[in-house]
Write a structure and sequence with these properties.
The complex is a heterodimer of chains A (about 725) and B (about 375). By secondary structure, chain A is of the alpha+beta class. Chain A contains 23 helices and 32 strands. In chain A, strands 2, 3, 4, 14, 19, 27 and 28 form a 7-stranded mixed beta sheet that branches. In chain A, strands 8-9-10-7-6-11 form a 6-stranded mixed beta sheet, with no helix packed on it. In chain A, helix 11 (about 350-360) packs antiparallel against helix 23 and helix 15 (about 475-480) runs parallel beside helix 21. Chain B is mostly helical and about 375 residues long. In chain B, the strands form 2 sheets. A 3-stranded antiparallel beta sheet of chain B has the order 1-2-3, with helices on one face. In chain B, strands 4-5 form a two-stranded antiparallel ribbon. In chain B, strand 4 (about 230) and strand 5 form a beta hairpin. In chain B, helix 1 (about 1-35) packs antiparallel against helix 2, helix 3 packs across helix 4 and helix 12 packs antiparallel against helix 13 (about 360-380). The longest helix of chain B has about 35 residues, at about 1-35. Classes of the chains: A alpha+beta (about 725), B mainly alpha (about 375). The interface between A and B is large, with 40 and 50 residues.
Chain lengths: ~725, ~375
């Protein structure tokens, strides 16, 4: 074959292939083009991600702390409107009671969409609230009341939520009569009111005043004034009507809601949009618009709460209507539906009723924290940090105002002070005591003379009582919180031996609680050599022996140490998550009682220190003698940690506050069979005995009243219409003496 | 002869213009596909095409005799790279095709196309264009038994690529190799044996392995669009009609005569097109630009192929001729198989559309090949 023939043959072949392709394209695009376009128009097949329902967060009694609220969005896609556009807009205006201005706006947006992007859905309504009657188009009216209504599941009585300060009935302005005003002995659960005019019942919390049951929220009842039909769920009725309209769709999404608002916000946390870093850290988990838990349990249990999204192949029929699954299966056989797996429900050890009592006990002070821990299991029954924040506001898009206000707040509302470390003050003396006894440096009866100060290394270390306690033994030293006694013990122990006992009690080590915490610090000689400007100074051990200096501990660490002392030396792993329940209701995780380590100390030494702590509260000359209770023997230790600090550019009031000492009180009760440990920390609160101990006393009293707690004890998420004030229930600073 | 050279030069510039236009169409379509899918392939494709442009210029200027000498070495390196892929390559979509060096990903199967072309060109060059004083040059068509060395040169990379599995590329290598051999001329009897043997190989491979189950499914689907399969393990009707390829056909069809317009493709918009940046890119283009756009696209590709064949025809040395034939065959067959598959003429085999589909290795290798053709055109195929 000649070269020219070969070339000719190759060119012929290339032309043949070219013509084959052109023929196929001609067949597809010209001969059948229109039908393909129509087919493409009426049946779009696509993949869709089905978001998973986020797991609920509940407290120990099953009260919902974080729930999911459905929110509905109505959209129109211009592409599908076609000739029916006018009819669709008219019908929408009728159904959604749009006014002329809104109709014009919608038309303008459809015009714009047809030019720019025919497939971009236009949001007509973000939240569907009240609608028109789907049968005659008349505006629906609320049948009875404009507010949501609460119904008791047991007795069937109905109530309206109301602000506790209200004087008049919000419906007919009749004067209200209030019942069961808080007497300080009981909670505010049973505070309720009735209208003198219409006789309606009102509650400040969704708890039935009749029988204490948790009230359930009714859907708004809507009625049509023309056809007299009633609708229990306007969205459902709307959906049926919308199905016939081309291009109109109802999208439902879920929003996280925190019914208890400020209570326990630090423990629960909130949600917001994922960042690029989140997406990079866990590739393939999040889509751009996903939300993720922040802070608290929402963050710590994110992996369990979020569930797994599903996937569906969907087919849209004519006019942009999504076909039902069964119809879809008739058309195409390989439809894949991967359902989404809802996240696990997370049950906390927290008791919201107790948590709220802690909040009430704290009402006179601006900043601080308190924890209540089960002395036998390490479960955290209450964890409170003041001031708090409303996770409902922090979830989603945050306004600049809120952000700036929070940043400017000198009391750091976002900080969980229960897990932030501070100098624990004299509460640390239990460690020094045990160390002294165990090392044989002191005996129970040995006395040390306290002249009010202690000379050491050419410096004079003062006792908090400048005139001195005279000769004191161990029990007296604890009772009076005599610093000189512990200076002496500390000096004889030495830095590193004392640090060893600090670690034995779990100081300087994580408590194991699920949410993010600080480890704190137990200083050693080596630490000081490395970090102190002048290296290790012999006087440091004296400061550490009384819980000052560079010693740092969180309230929860102090609580763990006291729990260990109370339960015979078992240092427990602290936990907030009690169990996790999967979508089928099976418990997939149950928090075990985990003993991290046991303090190696003689039982009689522990008993001696415990005896000292009982005397602190129950002897008339103990530092916390004002905080004793008749009903139960409390054992505890006060602490007043010097912590004067200064910050530039603060108001004189704040500057004064910053000069005050930190007030501590750590206690357990009952002393003979310790059940709970309460640690109260008041930031710059002054004296531990005057400030912190009464708070702890009130918490223990509330705990006694609540225990044994009835299994169905109902409790009150604050009604959402109470402004942004954390002290909406009236136990705020304005009541302070 | 003079007339030929003048025309060849002008033709070369037209072809270069066609290549530039194809690169432009690639960027336009990548950008539109990004718009539909929310990816950012456009930015990366710009970089790949720029790098490809540099490689194109280098390939135009390089001394072809260097390539002649290096042909077997290049072939050997590529085979080693393919072996490395098989041993420690990175898998994407169950297919082990990549070699990763830090941020750099190499796809040796792309290089294999050019390596096979160069090795075959070298071998035939050595047979026909003997240096003075060497053994007598080969004359007339080849017999089958004389072709065992080129068969080996093709079979090794073919099998290694098939193993990945990358049926599309391995078939392309076979098509290109057969094109070169046929250009060189094969005895009629040998050709008949080769054809019958090749046809017999298909059922044997079907029966005794070598073809993956999913590949068989694609052929079944192509032959019978209503075919479906019952999966005994899970008890569900698994794959029915191949929705993906059907959607590509819908997309092409709904382009009609003028197309729906840039960024107006309904199928693409709803992200229904799988692989819309790579193998299926022509579906997006066809939906947007219709029959007119597709005709223009095919004409541009045909100009490139024709120019390659013309250059081969005009080249003096055997190596240069076969190099141009090989590159033309790569472009021509790849366009035919890719568009034929997207348009539902051929079963689905993964093969990108030259220049248009996203991919750094593919863009650089095809531009290198086209640069070599331009080199041959400029030097008139003299080594």
């Amino acid at each position: 074959m000649s070269s020219a023939a070969r070339f000719g043959l190759a060119v012929t072949l290339s032309i043949a292939l070219f013509i084959t392709l052109m023929g196929r394209l001609f067949y597809l695009q010209i001969v059948h083009g229109e039908s393909f376009r129509e087919r493409a128009r009426i049946s779009f097949v696509g993949h869709e991600r089905i978001p998973a329902r986020r797991g609920l967060i509940k407290d120990a009694a099953g009260r919902v702390l974080a729930s999911n609220q459905a929110s509905h969005q109505l959209t129109v896609t211009p592409f599908y409107l076609g000739k029916e556009r006018e009819a669709v807009v008219t019908r929408l205006a009728q159904l959604l009671s749009l006014n002329q201005q809104e109709v014009d706006e919608l038309n303008a947006r459809i015009d714009e969409g047809l030019v720019k992007d025919r497939w971009a859905p236009i949001v007509v309504r973000r939240e569907l609230v009240s609608e028109a009657c789907p049968f005659d188009g008349a505006s629906l009216e609320l049948l009875e009341s404009p507010a949501r209504r609460l119904t008791c599941g047991r007795c069937g009585l109905r109530y309206e939520p109301i602000d506790p300060k209200a004087v008049f009935c919000p419906i007919d302005r009749g004067r209200l009569t209030w019942h069961g005003v808080d007497d300080g002995q009981h909670g505010d659960d049973h505070v309720h009111a009735s209208c003198n005019k219409c006789g309606r019942g009102f509650v400040t919390a969704p708890v039935c005043p009749n029988d204490g049951q948790l009230l359930t929220v009714d859907e708004q009842n809507l009625g049509c004034p023309v056809c007299k039909r009633t609708f229990s769920d306007e969205v459902a009725s709307l959906q049926a009507q919308l199905y016939t309209l081309p291009g109109v769709e109802l999208h439902t999404s879920f929003r996280r809601e925190y019914p208890f608002r400020y209570d326990g916000a630090h423990v629960i946390g909130y949600m917001n949009r994922v960042t690029r870093e989140d997406r990079e850290r866990e590739p393939g988990v999040y889509e751009l618009t996903d939300m993720r838990g922040r802070r608290g349990v929402e963050d710590a249990a994110e992996a369990f709460l979020r569930g797994a999204p599903g996937e569906a192949l969907f087919l849209k029929g004519a006019r942009g209507k999504r076909l039902e699954e069964s119809e879809l299966k008739k058309l195409i056989q390989d439809v894949e539906f991967r359902r989404s797996i809802p996240g696990d429900e997370v049950w906390l050890t927290l008791d919201m009723q107790l948590q709220r009592e802690v909040k009430r006990a704290f009402r006179y002070y601006k900043s601080g924290a308190a924890v209540v821990v089960d002395a036998k299991t390490g479960g955290v029954l209450a964890m409170y940090s003041k001031p708090g924040f409303d996770p409902n506001i922090w979830s989603g898009r945050l306004t600049k105002d809120v952000w700036e206000e929070t940043q400017a707040n000198p009391y750091s509302p976002l900080l969980n002070k229960a897990l932030t470390t501070y100098a624990p003050g004299s509460t640390y003396k239990i460690v020094t005591s045990i160390a002294g006894l165990e090392e044989g440096i002191i005996t129970p009866d040995m006395t040390i003379h306290c002249p009010g100060h202690y000379e050491y290394g050419g410096r004079r270390f003062h006792c908090h009582n400048r005139s001195g306690h005279g000769p004191v033994n161990m029990i007296q030293a604890l009772k009076y919180s005599c610093d000189v006694y512990f200076y002496r013990v500390g000096e004889m122990l030495g830095m590193d031996t004392l640090a060893r006992y600090g670690h034995a009690f779990g100081f300087g080590e994580p408590t194991g609680v699920e949410i993010s915490e600080r480890e704190g610090r137990v200083p050693t000689r080596a630490w000081h050599t490395k970090n102190s400007p002048n290296g290790y100074q012999p006087g440091f051990v004296l400061s550490t022996a009384i819980g000052q200096g560079d010693l740092m501990a969180s309230s929860l660490q102090v609580a763990r140490a006291f729990a260990a002392l109370a339960n015979g030396g078992r240092v427990l792993k602290m936990h907030l998550v009690k169990r996790r329940v999967d979508e089928h209701g099976h418990t997939v995780y149950e928090a075990p009682v985990e003993v991290v380590k046991t303090i190696d100390a003689a039982p009689q030494h522990m008993a001696l220190v415990r005896e000292g702590l009982v005397r602190v509260v129950n002897d008339p000359d103990g530092t916390a003698s004002d905080s004793a209770l008749d009903s139960v023997v409390i054992a505890g230790k006060t602490g007043t940690a010097e912590s004067a600090e200064s910050r530039p550019g603060v108001s004189p009031e704040i500057a004064r506050w910053l000069k005050e000492d930190h007030a501590w009180f750590a206690a357990y009760a009952p002393a003979e069979d310790p059940q709970i440990v309460v640690v109260v920390f008041v930031e710059h609160g002054g004296s531990g005995s005057k400030t912190a101990a009464p708070i702890a006393q009130r918490i223990i009293r509330s705990w006694l009243r609540l225990a044994p707690r009835p299994p169905s004890a109902a409790l009150d998420p604050e009604p959402p219409d109470h402004g942004g004030d954390e002290d909406a229930l009236g136990d705020g600073e304005d009541e302070a003496p | 002869m003079r007339r030929h050279r003048a025309m060849g030069d002008r033709f070369s510039w037209i072809a270069v213009l066609a290549i530039v236009m194809l690169a432009g169409i690639s960027l336009l379509t990548q950008s539109n596909s990004d718009y539909y899918s929310g990816d950012d392939f456009y930015d990366k494709q710009v970089i790949w095409l720029l790098m490809g442009g540099i490689v194109f210029v280098v390939a135009t200027l390089v001394d072809l005799s260097l390539l002649l000498r290096g042909a077997y070495v290049f072939w050997g390196v590529v085979v080693l790279a393919l072996l490395a892929v098989a041993l420690f390559g990175t898998s994407v979509n169950n297919s082990q095709r990549w070699l990763r060096f830090g941020g750099l990903s190499l796809q040796p199967s792309e290089m294999a196309k050019l390596a096979v072309v160069m090795a075959l060109a070298r071998w035939f060059h050595d047979r026909r264009d003997r240096v003075p004083g060497g053994p007598l040059p080969h004359e007339g068509p080849y017999l089958l038994r004389q072709l065992w060395v080129p068969a080996l040169l093709v079979a090794v990379p073919f099998l290694l690529v098939l193993k990945q599995p990358d049926l599309g590329t391995s078939l392309l290598i076979a098509f290109v190799a057969v094109s070169i051999v046929l250009w060189e001329g094969v005895a009629k009897k040998s050709f008949a044996i080769l054809a019958v043997g090749g046809l017999l190989l298909v059922p044997v491979a079907w029966k005794y392995g070598g073809i993956h189950e999913y590949q068989k499914d694609r052929v079944r689907l192509w032959l019978n669009p209503d075919w479906f399969k019952f999966d005994a393990d899970t008890g569900v009707v698994a794959t029915a009609r191949n929705l993906q390829s059907e959607q590509a056909v819908w997309a092409i069809g709904s382009g009609e005569f003028w197309g729906q317009g840039s960024r107006m493709g309904a199928q693409s918009r709803l992200k229904h097109l799988p692989e819309m940046h790579t193998d299926m890119i022509v579906a997006t283009f066809a939906e947007e630009h219709g029959f007119i756009g597709c005709t223009a696209l095919l004409v541009l590709f045909w100009i490139v192929v024709l120019w390659g064949l013309r250059t081969a025809h005009d080249a003096r040395d055997r190596f240069c001729t076969l190099l141009a034939v090989g590159v033309s065959a790569i472009v021509g067959w790849q366009v035919f198989i890719n568009i034929g598959m997207v348009a539902g003429l051929l079963p689905i085999v993964g093969l990108p559309l030259p220049l248009l589909s996203y991919g750094g290795n593919a863009a650089i290798m095809i531009l290198a090949g086209l640069g070599l053709v331009l080199n041959v055109a400029f030097t008139r195929g003299r080594l």
